[in-house]
Design a protein that fits this description.
Elements: E1 4-5, H1 16-23, H2 36-49, E2 53-57, H3 60-71, E3 77-81, H4 85-88, H5 93-98, E4 101-105, H6 113-119, E5 130-136, H7 149-161, E6 165-170, H8 173-180, H9 184-188, E7 193-197, E8 208-212, H10 214-226, H11 235-247, H12 252-268, E9 272-273, E10 281-285, H13 289-298, E11 301-302, E12 304-307, E13 310-314, H14 321-339, H15 341-349
Helix pairs in contact: 1-11, 2-11, 3-10, 6-7, 12-14, 13-14, 14-15
The structure holds pyridoxal-5'-phosphate (PLP).
Amino acid sequence: MTIIDLRSDTVTRPTAAMRRAMAEAEVGDDVYGEDPSVNCLQSMAAELLGKEAALLVPSGSMANQAALRCLTRHGDVVLAGEGAHLLRYESGAAAAISGVQVETIGRGGLFDADEVHDGVHPLDHHYPPVTVVALENTHNAAGGRIFPLAQMQAIVAAARGHGLRLHLDGARLFNAVVATGIPAERWAEPFDTVSFCLSKGLGAPVGSLVCGSKEVVERVHRIRKMLGGGMRQAGILAAAGIHALEHHVARLAEDHDNARRLAAGLRALGLEVDPPPETNMVMFRQPDTAAFLSALKARGVLLNAVADGRYRAVTHLDVAAGAIDEAVRRIGAALEEIHGAGRARSRSDAG
Ligand SMILES: Cc1ncc(COP(=O)(O)O)c(C=O)c1O
């Protein structure tokens, strides 16, 4: 039985062509700044995002945390959306490394300019200074949702009005780019720091970039060293990143089509899909979490429960449309097992 792994777009394995590019990469010692492949990737990333400079770091978490460390001082407040990855899933790094307090605003990950205004504390010595707003686009915990551009621009204007700096966690920025047709440069333009990952939908094994002005990236470079993120012949990894940027961006549209295909299949089984997928994630509900997950696992379908009765399935490079149809069939069989054949059939009739 083939496993259909929908837990995350991080589970992709390098393609044969990507492995060839890695094997043939020109390398040097990147801590000396002498790795031609790393330098090439960094220039590509800076140009794509319309920034002066970019720096390769091992992970999206390090990218976020190095950016926050660069933009803040101990005791500052960072405003971020609910469920922000940099707050919730990075092992307390914002507190541990930057000594900042992250305060969440809005609901479900997205927020608006009024919520930024409300989040800024009065100038009074009782309150910690709010200095940064961090956005996540696409938003993971919100189900791969895209921050609407106009809403983002209003937030930026509000933040700048209060003298705040801005970070964009663009781990899946290229999903937003492909889904909207709005270039990465336009999304990135107002931010002091922008991070994006090579190792999610883009299908590389390792690596994220932090992009910004030369001055900001120089400071992030020092912080990367402090965090132990300096890598030597990292060109092997950078070559995978270059290959991903050249060959795996436009194809994200297939992942988005597959997410819609999966959502339609789940709805036809009577499951509630919420919100409708905007990119490569499908969030849906079904009670009996433990029984459901184990019935799925027995049928070779892997996905994650994000809360009791709520699941996230992520489409990616390693699942084609046929595998999505097969996953829906197996999910239907799992539902029949846990609810009894009659109920599952009537649910699927509700299509
Ligand atoms: C929105 C977002 N930011 C950052 C990260 C962190 O990336 P990494 O797992 O490479 O540390 C993730 C990982 O899933 C993510 O979804």
